Amino acid sequence: MSTLYRIAALTLLLAQVGLTHARADRIYSVTDLGFGEGVALNDNGYVLLNQNGQATLWRDGTTQTLFQGTATGLNNLDEVTGESNLNRAILVRGGTIRDLGPGYAAAVNDQGVVLLGNNGEFSYWEDGIETSIPDLTGTSPYAMNDSGAIVGADSAANAFFYDSSGINILGYGYAGDINNSGNYIYTFIGTFEDSMFIRIGADEIPLGLLSPDHTNADASGLNSFDQVVGRSGNRGFLWQNSVMQDLNDLILPEFQSDWTIFAARDINDLGDILASAIDTQGRVHTVLLREQLTPTVVPEPSSLALGLIGLACGGWLWRRRGSTPAQLP
User: Fold this and answer.
1) What does the radius of gyration of the chain's CA atoms come to, in whole angstroms?
2) Residue 306 — φ and ψ, nearest 5°?
């Protein structure tokens, strides 16, 4: 069959059966993780929590106690950092607890580099070798990416960004997270409408608020796709491409009467979100919002329109046959 006949046949077939396609709307299920504090969520679905003075790791309904103390960081190698109840920096690697010395381990990236803090001094730790970071003296680091860039708040409660070129003070507030593209989020204290921002390259983009009357806000989590989660007023939000959505509007209907999502802590590259929610008795839980793909059928073009397309193609084919040499099938 010639190419022209194939085009005509396909077009006429589409005219007979119609065209339909589906798109996926973002919506989430809710999994209750209990009364502990959610710390971090990685791309493998592990959730790091602080529960009753213990650092714990959750995955698919199973919770593992790691050490007595406070958890601070989780990477995509399932490595965990924190501080023991004896004020020692802790790294959990390959199921083994490693004591990295006095102080605490503030974060760990996917290269296995740990950010250590002790008496206001900070250093990178990698396979037993420490490298001092003088610019961070007296600060409170919140997150570190794979290049070793760090965000947090300094001793004067100013948000900062740090990389190999030095420290950059952003203003009164704190910087909550940074991704491997070097993009980061920060929140200014004492301002309302323009209190939360994402820095993408050289662009500073305001996130806005869910409602103009909200007088508190917090940008907490950022993933590789520049999706941001946090809190606006007492509602958890998801921001992407200049659009902010209330997470309570994005959970499946069967969960909406049971939970009020009032803050979001972290988001992974699968789109899953670590959040805080209030149950029907007013108690605070940590919950995992897991993205579901719900197909929505887009209305098909009318049969008449498709029929006209088929007739037009047939007429075009007839004219082509009259003006070109015949081809063998």
Assistant:
1) 26
2) -70, -35
